[in-house]
Amino acid sequence: MSTPQLRIEVASIDAFILRLFDRIDEANMPWMLAAGTRLREAFGTALIDLVPSYTTLLLHYDLQQLDPRQARELIAGALSDLSPETRASGRSHIIPTWYDPSVGPDLEPLAQRKQIGVAELVQRHSQREYQVFALGFTPGFAFMGLVEEALAAPRLTTPRKRIEPGSVGIAERQTAIYPVESPGGWNLLGRTPARLFDLNLPDYSLLQAGDRVRFEPVDRAEFIRLGGDDTPLESLQ
User: Transmembrane helix among the record's keywords (predicted)?
Assistant: First the structure.
């Protein structure tokens, strides 16, 4: 298991990027969670925001309570002798997903490129549990991984102008769900009725860094019963 090598980079007058790792790895997450816990305890009310990603933490602090030198000292103290989080952290989610070309137009082309059947692609994407590494791009958009290497696919050369909420896709070795209508260049496999972004949810997002996600294939009837919109993507362009 790799251990973090802390590098502190200035992001703005009141924020630092804390770089713990150089490459994406599922084994990073226990360290990232432990670092987040330590930093929140150390900064207390002086912490404005702490945003995790695959390898870094963006730390935004209150300049009225701390100057940059004091903030650096708190960071160094909090992350000295760091140990990975050993307890199960985050929540587990089962995300019902209708895998179908009408809502996942890249499902068949991707299966063809990988020289496997659509059913096998669906089975291989849905059998794996994914870690939520970070939130970004749009509210509630969770970057998850890692997709098995054999299914990895680059982003589309030309992004689509409109992606429906709930669309499930792959980009490189990441998988994600579009929480709101937006442009996007991920390879779309299907759609879920789950609401990823909702002002009534804690922190407004169903998924948080450290959560674990498994996609559960459902048929069209179950997708609609759960509140899904089966309008084909092509008709919305």
Answer: no
